[in-house]
Amino acid sequence: MKYSLASSTWDEKEKNAMLEVIETGMYTMGEKVKSYEEKFANYFGSKYAVMVNSGSSANLLATAALFYRKNNALKPGDEVIVPAVSWSTTYHPLQQYNLHLKFVDIDLDTLNYDLEALKNAVTEKTRMILAVNLLGNSNDFDEISKIIGDRDIILLEDNCESMDSEFNGIKTGTFGLMGTFSSFFSHHISTMEGGMVVTDDEELYHIMLSMRSHGWTRHLPDQNMVTGKKSNDPFEESFKFVLPGYNLRPGELHGAVGIEQLKKLPRLIEQRRKNAQIFQKLFSDHPYLRIQKEVGASSWFGFSMVLKDNAPYSRNEFVELLNQHEIECRPIVSGNFLKNPVLKHYDYSVGGVVKNAEIIDQKGLFVGNHHYDLKEQLMHLKSVL
Ligand SMILES: Cc1ncc(COP(=O)(O)O)c(C=O)c1O
């Protein structure tokens, strides 16, 4: 039996939504994207949402925006704390903006920050903490907020793997000043490529509207927090550039698909959580496998397994065994990111000792979760292990 990593959640609804856009002949960002953004912001409980062409672009846009606030803007050299396990494009925008990255170990059970290590890593130099909710699992935002205390530290969330996960009944991605999401194919919902930044901060929202589109004023409201009042002359405002931006815009087809996918999201997550219950029942007392410990209500991107010291086989043998039984698996995101050669381009330091990231790097992997019943696949997995 094949147990795949990811599967499509599209049907006629997405196809029809795309056909509707195709009928208009207009494919560039327009009303569908706008409507998707409004629905997205509403669903997650944020004031504003800005759609971009990937989760990576969402991280880039959020980082960039922080450099152009009127007050308290980030500056090159500022220190940002990051977890030692995440995706490459969690980190790259920080490098590209010449920030100093301070890597902190993760917790072997939750796979998010080791909270003690995080606490010890925060100093008067810390300007920002980037919290990554890994594989659908929320960080403990009560603890992070205690660690920050009354210090002037920005909390930013990379929620690209954890759409619709909750902590204390609040959606992840909304705890930070901004939160980023991905709707790449293998994620909870798919616009094939796509990302989103949410925020309650109007100034950052306006900065992102400009920086997403060439740094121009065209998409800014008439009265806005970047330029103040726009001129009444559309000709003048059509090619007026006020911020060093990019073109990170999604296409209209992606927005139209997003609207349909968002309608399905509660059902998709419900089934993912049911699958997780089966996974937990089968593997929580496993003699030599450690599974992810849920914090809040996870949206279960996938199911991680880390070999304990007494495991009868190595990780390579583990992968081989799964391959033989047609069970697809992947490393736990980047593993220990510090071991990647790209680090030679980074300005960075390490807060404490990164030992758990190394363990999951050497001994961990994850298998997929889906929006359909996985009982048979999970029983198959259990029979192999
Ligand atoms: C934690 C994290 N951040 C950012 C991204 C980038 O998202 P995208 O693939 O949409 O660019 C990913 C990708 O899966 C991710 O896992």
UniProtKB/TrEMBL annotation:
Any Pfam family: DegT_DnrJ_EryC1
A molecular function GO annotation: pyridoxal phosphate binding
TM regions (residue ranges): none
Gene3D superfamilies to which the protein is assigned, alphabetical: Aspartate Aminotransferase, domain 1, Type I PLP-dependent aspartate aminotransferase-like (Major domain)
Keywords, sorted A to Z: Aminotransferase, Pyridoxal phosphate, Transferase
Keyword Membrane tagged: no
Enzyme Commission numbers on file: 2.6.1.92
Keyword Transferase included in the entry's annotation: yes
Name of the top EC class for this enzyme: transferase
Domain of life from the UniProt record: Bacteria
Gene Ontology biological-process entries: polysaccharide biosynthetic process
PANTHER family in alphabetical order: DTDP-4-AMINO-4,6-DIDEOXYGALACTOSE TRANSAMINASE, TRANSAMINASE
Similarity remark: Belongs to the DegT/DnrJ/EryC1 family.
Listed name of the protein: UDP-4-amino-4, 6-dideoxy-N-acetyl-beta-L-altrosamine transaminase
Organism of origin: Salinivirga cyanobacteriivorans
Gene: pseC
